[in-house]
Amino acid sequence: MFKLGDRVVYPMHGAGIIEAIEEKEILGEKQQYYIMRLPLGDMRVMIPLRNANVIGIREVVSDDGLEQALAVLQEAETSMPSNWNQRYRANLEKIRTGDIMTVAEVMRNLVKRDQEKGLSTGERKMLDTARQIFVSELILVRDMEEESAMRLIDGLLGS
Fold first, then answer.
1. Rounded CA gap, 104 and 69, in Å?
2. Which CATH number applies to 63-157: 1.20.58.1290, 3.40.50.170, 2.70.70.10, 2.40.110.10?
3. Has residue 159 got a pLDDT over 70?
4. Helices 121-142 and 100-116, interaxial angle, to 10°?
5. pTM of the model
């Protein structure tokens, strides 16, 4: 169980800070929720405590883990299916894991593909999602501003 002030990652949404643990009644059912604030867009998310493990909530990575993820951004592109639909589904599954290393891999591969052949609208949206997830964790691990985090990532990706 997480506690107030913990920095956690909510897969598909990004990293944030647990600001409260509250009991809420929704559709006639009372349960406890983590109230998490995401640094990007100053959004708040309610996460049911009893589903936190199933959803895949995890603590933000260590600085060493972040360094490894940043290194992934500079590695060579890994092979991806040539069919955009298969590629999209494979990348979506990787992002859903919430693992920063796989999110970095998706981001790197999509940026390289964009530079070579361009991206479909769906893949461009996926790249934006992956970037948002990665940036939110970078901001919390390094206590950076969003703009600095974006510049760092863009520099490493060569975009």
1. 6
2. 1.20.58.1290
3. no
4. 140
5. 0.90
